[in-house]
Amino acid sequence: MKKLVLFLTCISCTGVFAQQLEYALTKSTSTYSELTSPTDITTKAWTDVHNLRLPPGFNFKYFGKRYDTVRISATSGIWFSRAGDDIAFFGTENYFPQNNNNAMSPVSYIATGITPDRIVKIQFKNFRAQTSDPTDEYTVNNQIWLYETTNAIEFHFGPNTITDPNKTEFFIGIIDSDNSPYLAIDSTAAAPKLVRVINAGTFDGIPTHPVNGQVYTLTPTPKASVNQLPKPYSFYQLENGFQLMGETPGSVGIYDLSGKLVEIISNEPGQLLKHEFKDMAPGIYTINFRINDVDFIEKIIIR
Questions:
Q1: Cβ atoms of residues 260 and 284 within 8 Å
Q2: Which pLDDT tens digit goes with each residue over 187-237?
Q3: CATH of the structural domain 5-18+225-302, one choice from 2.40.37.20, 3.30.360.10, 2.60.40.3080, 2.40.128.110
Q4: Which three-class secondary structure string do you get for 133-184?
Q5: Percent of the chain that is helix, strand, coil (3-state, to 5)
């Protein structure tokens, strides 16, 4: 018996990647300066998560949700939710303090400026990571800035020493648990791109750590509706597959509901792609493709 293919047409499913890409990335350079007389939370930061109450009236918006408190974690960046699943993160793996001495790798914060242009700055100093060879070095200095009014998130990268040749994957981005998958920096540190990560298991981040003075700014953008985002392609269901026509990329990925890549289909830009499913188990699948650096997704159900 042939499988039944149903195409989901709800707003949360059709064209979801273009709809949900709610932050714009800009890169700049600025002299990295350590914070002056910040509040040090080192005594708790390496063993627990510190609750930071934002200044009165600050009320930072993260993916459109308002927060008056953020939580600082030495090992994973800053959390916007108590469960730790809404995170602005940087790095490659778990960090530890220099010489296992918390005082040598302090975590601190400060609020600067006046309303409505205040900035909350959180600093991670002399953070280390395990290297494959004891003679190699891995030490970074980073800051995360939160901007009042604009709700922008800024990653500031300071002096770093990474000599381990095996360190080739660095992950920087933001996670919204209600809008997964997450947004992350892709391509290279010098020419970064903000992408929506479909399958974390196959995403490699960027191959080198950003250099001293590099700044990545993530600014919220208006959330467009499906009607405001005409799809630059045509997508039709077939009896047991689909047909895609448009300026599509060289490959189209099919993923199951867990995010596992099931199949990759090769296709030439501007040519008709006609695909029939074979031996696909019943369930929900996503068909992912990119047009003009924007990721699009269609979801189907196979019964």
A1: no
A2: 999 999 998 887 777 788 999 999 999 999 999 986 544 444 567 778 887
A3: 2.60.40.3080
A4: CCCCCEEEEEEEEEECCCCCEEEEECCCEECCCCCCCECCEECCHHHCCCEE
A5: 10, 45, 50
